[in-house]
């Protein structure tokens, strides 16, 4: 049977992707960030997932204001890196897993999570930057990736509670798949940042540390953080953190923290990164 055995969370700052693509990861500014992901590179080489369900948000790239799905599952066989204005990132094509994605779609929708299904879309920095941070620059991504896009751009995004419950349902969906697959769920985006308006540049390290503590030890409490509190405390883009709750929900209630990393700043953002495994 398939199993979700670990979760990984990470910020997805586009400038980190540019640092990889332009060979700047050892520059003074970037070195502490990329050193913080060396552990993840070793860990992923050892744990070798077959499939990553990558929870991310599209930034009005493939999904503009014409169509705004709250939760959208990528069911296609492949997804091309998007052109976000500077050409497509020089990263491999993302290979999906249509069979597992179809199973997850059926399980989640019958479990009353009314997903949008997407067979064709390009994937933006929200998805490709986490892959680069964890896998570096391979010829091909070493596992299949099922994109799960969450609307955190246009109000109203889903609640943290709904995201945690979706994680629970995702765990159940994977566990009922009749093939031996080792699956990880990644929750991406965050941590505190605001890209616009008078508070642009806002970082709140206390909020970020508290969020990580709650996500690990008291996910129901993390899930009860209201939209307005994300907005006030973690800035207008801090709401991306609800996606971390999907990854957390996909694990067992008791977990092991394998890695915790935090660095300020990268571009306008507080970079946070966790690796969590089920505690058996
Ligand atoms: C930045 C961070 C993001 O999460 C994003 O989507 C775009 C830009 C930044 O810090 O520059
Ligand atoms: Fe973002």
From TrEMBL:
GO-annotated molecular function: ferrous iron binding; oxidoreductase activity, acting on single donors with incorporation of molecular oxygen, incorporation of two atoms of oxygen
Keyword Oxidoreductase: yes
Superkingdom to which the source organism belongs: Bacteria
Keywords: Dioxygenase, Oxidoreductase
KW Iron-sulfur (keyword) present: no
Protein name in the entry: Protocatechuate 4,5-dioxygenase subunit beta
Domain Extradiol ring-cleavage dioxygenase class III enzyme subunit B: 7-271
Pfam families for the chain: LigB
Gene3D superfamilies with a match to the protein in the record: LigB-like
InterPro entries: Xdiol_dOase_suB
């Amino acid at each position: 049977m398939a199993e979700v055995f670990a979760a990984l969370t990470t910020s997805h700052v586009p400038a980190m992707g540019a640092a990889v693509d332009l060979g700047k990861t050892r520059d003074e500014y970037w070195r502490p960030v990329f050193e913080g992901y060396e552990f993840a590179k070793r860990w992923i080489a050892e744990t070798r997932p077959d499939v990553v369900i990558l929870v991310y948000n599209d930034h009005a790239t493939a999904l503009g204001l014409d169509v705004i799905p709250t939760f959208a599952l990528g069911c296609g066989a492949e997804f091309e890196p998007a052109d976000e204005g500077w050409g497509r990132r020089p990263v491999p094509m993302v290979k999906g897993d249509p069979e597992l994605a179809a199973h997850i779609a059926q399980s989640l929708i019958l479990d009353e999570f009314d997903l949008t299904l997407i067979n064709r879309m390009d994937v933006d920095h929200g998805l490709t930057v986490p892959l680069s941070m964890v896998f570096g620059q391979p010829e091909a991504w070493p596992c299949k990736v099922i994109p799960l896009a969450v609307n955190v751009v246009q109000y109203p995004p889903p609640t943290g509670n709904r995201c945690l419950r979706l994680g629970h349902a995702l765990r159940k969906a994977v566990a009922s798949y009749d093939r031996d697959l080792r699956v990880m769920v990644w929750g991406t985006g965050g941590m505190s940042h605001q890209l616009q308006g008078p508070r642009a540049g806002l970082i709140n390290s206390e909020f970020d540390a508290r969020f990580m503590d709650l996500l690990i030890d008291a996910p129901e409490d993390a899930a009860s953080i209201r939209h307005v509190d994300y907005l006030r405390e973690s800035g207008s883009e801090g709401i991306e953190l609800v996606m971390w709750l999907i990854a957390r929900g996909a694990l067992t209630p008791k977990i092991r923290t394998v890695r915790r990393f935090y660095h300020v700043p990268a571009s306008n953002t507080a970079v946070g990164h966790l690796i969590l495994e089920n505690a058996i």
